[in-house]
Amino acid sequence: MLPESDWECLALAQHHGLATPLLDWTFNPLVAAYFAVSEHFDKDGVLFDYAPEYFVNPITDLWPSFDYITAYIPKPISPRMLNQQAVFSFHGMQPISLKLEPAKKWKGTNPEQIIISSIGKKKCLDGLNNLGINRSFVFPDLDGLSHHINWETQDF
After folding, report:
1. Domain boundaries in the chain?
2. In what side-by-side order are the strands of the sheet with 112-116?
3. Cα torsion at 14, 78, 8, 2 (round to 10°)?
4. 134 exposed, middle or buried (CB, 10 Å; 0-12, 13-18, 19+)?
């Protein structure tokens, strides 16, 4: 499927490594956990929870047309976007500051964070793999499969 708007082009480009003004999020907390624990084993991982107030309509909202934080839920035009349950935020053309808060019952519009200790990251990664959340799932292509097979066959 080909992108049908500037928003879709940016979302697809972001999912393949191009620097864009979009910030990646996911609706799937297991996918978020995978990204939080899959590298930098010497550092704590962090999960962020955020509930935006505004959403982009990619047909009527021209790029870039916002000076506030906006969420964009793309059509799953690629297997990565589908498996990762992609959603993006665009933070406007003006600097916006957000205050991070420790996770609790959600309220307000500031992101909350959950820390995953560096000493638990490898165990968490194993548990996610047992649930089918691994590199070959979040990157469903030959590169993702190759990385996952290498990971499965190496000793940590």
Report:
1. 6-152
2. 45-49, 112-116, 101-102
3. 130
4. buried
- Nearest Cα neighbor of 81 from 14, 148, 20 is 14
pLDDT, tens digit (0-9, with 9 covering 90-100), for 50-85: 888 888 888 888 776 677 788 999 998 899 999 999
The tokens for 53 are: 């107030």
Location of structure tokens 């691994």? 134
In the DSSP assignment, the letter for residue 62 is P
Gap between the terminal Cα atoms of the chain = 39
* Burial (CB count <10 Å: 0-12, 13-18, 19+), residue 90: buried
DSSP per-residue letters across 99-122: --EE-SS--SSS-EEEEE-GGGHH
Question: What count of other Cβ atoms lies within 10 Å of the Cβ of residue 30?
Answer: 15
